[in-house]
Amino acid sequence: MIDNEFVISGAKVLMPDGTVDTANIFVSGDKISKIGGGDIDGCNVIDGRGKFATPGLINAHTHASMTLLRSYSDDKSLMDWLQKDIWPIEDKMTRRDIYWGAALAAVEMIRGGTTAFADMYGPCMDEVAKVVDESGLRGSLCRGLISFVDGDKKLADNVALYKNFHGAANGRVTVMFGPHAIYTCPPDYLRKVAAEASKLGAEIHMHMNETLTEINDSIKNYGKRPFEVVVETGLFDCGTLAAHCVHLSDAEIEIIRRKKIRVAHNPGSNMKLASGISPVTKLLAAGVTVALGTDGASSNNNLDMLEETRLAALLAKVDTLNPLAVPAAQALQMATDFGARALGLKSVGRLEVGCKADIVLWDMRGVEWQPNFNPASLLVYSANSAAADTVIVDGKILMQGRELKTLDEQKIIAEFTACANRLTGK
Amino acid sequence: MIDNEFVISGAKVLMPDGTVDTANIFVSGDKISKIGGGDIDGCNVIDGRGKFATPGLINAHTHASMTLLRSYSDDKSLMDWLQKDIWPIEDKMTRRDIYWGAALAAVEMIRGGTTAFADMYGPCMDEVAKVVDESGLRGSLCRGLISFVDGDKKLADNVALYKNFHGAANGRVTVMFGPHAIYTCPPDYLRKVAAEASKLGAEIHMHMNETLTEINDSIKNYGKRPFEVVVETGLFDCGTLAAHCVHLSDAEIEIIRRKKIRVAHNPGSNMKLASGISPVTKLLAAGVTVALGTDGASSNNNLDMLEETRLAALLAKVDTLNPLAVPAAQALQMATDFGARALGLKSVGRLEVGCKADIVLWDMRGVEWQPNFNPASLLVYSANSAAADTVIVDGKILMQGRELKTLDEQKIIAEFTACANRLTGK
User: Fold this and answer.
1) CATH architecture of B5-55+356-404
2) Of A163, A237, A418, B115, which sees the most CB atoms within 10 A?
3) DSSP for A275-304, written as a single string
């Protein structure tokens, strides 16, 4: 296997400024060592001709093991879905379920050109760390913290997760703290989380302002909107990735800007659950880092970041009635560079010398790529994720010619299916 | 090649009522002769195990040859896009361009599980009819009529198209009349179109109420909204497929209902061009047949009906803030049964004994189909169109195992690319 010292020759390359050039990309160890012309004689060569090289897509908000509940409960109201169908099954999940659920998610992400993800789920996040290690992906993991039952124990889990895994696998595994949401974590608990996280220098991953119910309950319980409540707990001083941010007042956008909070926009999930439309053009105009996420597979229903990128571009246009909103290159920046920033990753998310070699080669032979006037536009508006041909993370090839190199897909599907059937009694 | 007398064995089958059963589908000639159990010994068998059989998807509004302009001009305002970039190139299109543009569209539609399409474009629609004939697809074609230059000549073209092609290729080619829109066809011209169409018993395919500008201009010029103007011309008495219908008053919805107008909803194009969101849940509640279309590839930017189906389901939910709006089975009905009704096709769009054998088999082996609790939901919310494995129209296999049976894809891409490059000077 060609690995860790190779050149991708003659690909169309998405540059950090959003332009596209034909170039060679030289990879040495885990980094990009050169982009441009130059002699490739004697090099291990991956033929990039007819392929479009972009930074790997970054899923800035998901719950990987929820793949187990994909299409188990669709077309329901949010609370029926969550309380009657999802939570009772989640209560039954074992360590083994978490592992195989995340393993299937890893296959799906690699196959779709995703190279990194921010994951929040329940117990046994060390199993997700194991999947990150084995798959070759990058994962920013947190223990989802719901204070009501065993809040202190869960917080201790997150501390242990951080101590055991932050920086593991050559830095591919990182750890954040995961207070679930304001309606599951009262301010006193958030203060405790902030204290533990800041002791370790850890960042925060939290659901914020997803539904109108959440906003209304916050105003009822605290007399303030969620960002106004949480900012007073000091939590945002740790550095924060805030998922959803659908319903925002101007004052809350100002808190987001001032506290340098990174937003994970989840258009597919927000549409499917009818949560609403996040004001991403306002956030971007305010200089906020808006990344993209799929949310869990039971509310999306996949982990397809290319689809999310297209939805972000389309939804912003129709929401603002402005066809110039979130053009293709900006949508790709949100899915890559801004994704890396959202996860707190340095030197990731751009095809640039010295950056980590996290690269996707998209096969442009399909009819939906013809004529080929503008690869970035074609990727966002026309292609689908089955065009992901080669996926490289940290200089290592995870998929080539759509063949997985690190994971045993058939075994994973078999074990995963057994878990899903046992959990749901199907 | 197994053809015209075969059985699809052991597939999951989407029934007309939206439920899914495991069954055999027997095809004899151009029709479905039986669905259910029964002896398959001695039959030509297509192995349907692990596959999901649905009616072919029906693209109720497109401009096939516009594939030539895919991603030639993106992220522009509607009028800059149309007047500065699209129309000048369209003026240069030759007979050869129309043919190869439609041929590439046919490849793309078959590969995405589309079996029929309603097409409106400029001169030389007989070339599109030729592509329909050769590809094995169904096409409902019309000559796009813009009155300003040579309006009578164009109308005569449409009459000739009807006389020469309506009912051709075992009924796979049908013809409508194509008055482009109210802003390109004044009422007097629409009266002429209505007269010619009704003489032949032909139906109408027209853009209606796509943008706010169109509505405002109609009110300014005629003192009425577009449907109120057009209904007085008698055009709708011919039977009408109205594309877009984004901005509608209650009085217009009542005209649509009363005149049994079928609507082609184009969510992708309406989002990308920032036209607005069609009130599909109101239309459906009024009993209107709402089908789905991609619009042309230069405003979508593909002909992927599965993507359009998902967008229809997602957009209706977030627009109404109701997660129960347009559930998966209804979205599939819009993309199939309602599509057939929109095109005026009888015995098409349902997997039912006596109906035309227009069938797609979706390969459910991919990870995005796991776990497999609900194939209809998985198809709409999780799968992508690369899962289209086998496509059958009129009992004839157009694709099997993703291999095209009627069209030479490589030759089409080569000829198409030459046309696109010449047209755009690239």
Assistant:
1) Roll (2.30)
2) B115
3) -----HHHHHHTT--EEE----GGGTS---
Which of chain B's residues have a Cβ under 8 Å away from the Cβ of A300? 381-382
Instruction: Name, in order, each residue with C-beta under 8 angstroms of A408's C-beta and a sequence gap of 6 or more.
Output: none
pLDDT score recorded for residue B3: 53
> Mean pLDDT in chain A?
96
Beta partners for residue B258, in sequence order:
none
Residues of A in contact with B383 (CB under 8 A): 302
Q: Nearest Cα to B69, choosing from B114, B122, B115, B110?
A: B122
Report the distance separating Cα B50 and Cα B35, nearest Å: 17
Residues of B in contact with A244 (CB under 8 A): none
What are the boundaries of each domain within chain B? 5-55+356-404, 57-342
Chain B residues in contact with A299 (beta carbon < 8 A): none
Contact B110, B139 (CB under 8 A): no
- Look up residue B66 and give its DSSP letter: G
The per-residue DSSP string of B381-412 comes to HT--GGGEEEEEETTEEEEETTEESS--HHHH
Q: Which two tokens stand for residue A175?
A: 């750890």
- For residue A4, the model assigns a pLDDT of 82
The angle, 0 to 180 degrees and rounded to 10, between the axes of the packed helices A187-200 and A151-165 is 20
Q: How many CB pairs under 8 A join A and B?
A: 203
Alpha-carbon radius of gyration of chain B: 21
What DSSP string describes A126-144? HHHHHHHHHH--EEEEEEE
For residues A8-19, give the mean pLDDT.
96
Distance from CA of A254 to the nearest CA of B (A): 25
pTM above 0.90, yes or no: yes
Those residues of chain B that have pLDDT short of 50 are 1-2
> Are B324 and A77 in contact (CB < 8 Å)?
yes
Q: Provide, as residue numbers in chain A, all residues whose Cβ is less than 8 Å from the Cβ of B97.
A: none
pLDDT of residue B2: 44
- Say whether B323 and A273 touch across the interface (CB within 8 A): yes
* Residue of chain B minimizing CA distance to A366: B108
Minimal CA separation from A317 to chain B, in Å: 5
Q: Compute the distance between CA of residue B199 and CA of residue A22 in angstroms, rounded to an integer.
A: 57
Out of B74, B77, B383, closest to residue A381 by CB = B74
pLDDT recorded at residue A426: 78
Task: Find which of B278, B367, B402 to mutate to test the A interface (most A CBs within 10 Å of its CB).
Answer: B367
Fold match between domain B5-55+356-404 and domain B57-342:
no
Burial B31-49 (b: 16+ CB within 10 A, else e): bbeebeeeeeeebeebebe
Which helix (DSSP H) or strand (DSSP E) does residue B90 occupy?
helix B87-90
**Which CATH architecture does the domain made up of B57-342 adopt?**
Alpha-Beta Barrel (3.20)
> What tokens does A356 get?
């980590």
Question: Six-digit token pair at A38?
Answer: 């130059």
Question: Among B381, B415, B426, which would you mutate to test the A interface (most chain A Cβ atoms within 10 Å of its Cβ)?
Answer: B381
Do B323 and A77 lie within an 8 Å CB cutoff?
yes
Q: Are A8 and A24 in contact (CB under 8 A)?
A: yes
Neighbours of A251 (CB within 10 A): 11
Is the pLDDT score of A109 beyond 80? yes
Using a CB-CB distance cutoff of 8 angstroms, which residues of chain A are in contact with residue B75? Answer: 323-324, 327-328, 377
Residue linked to tokens 């974590």: A185
Percent of chain B with pLDDT over 90: 93
DSSP at A112: T
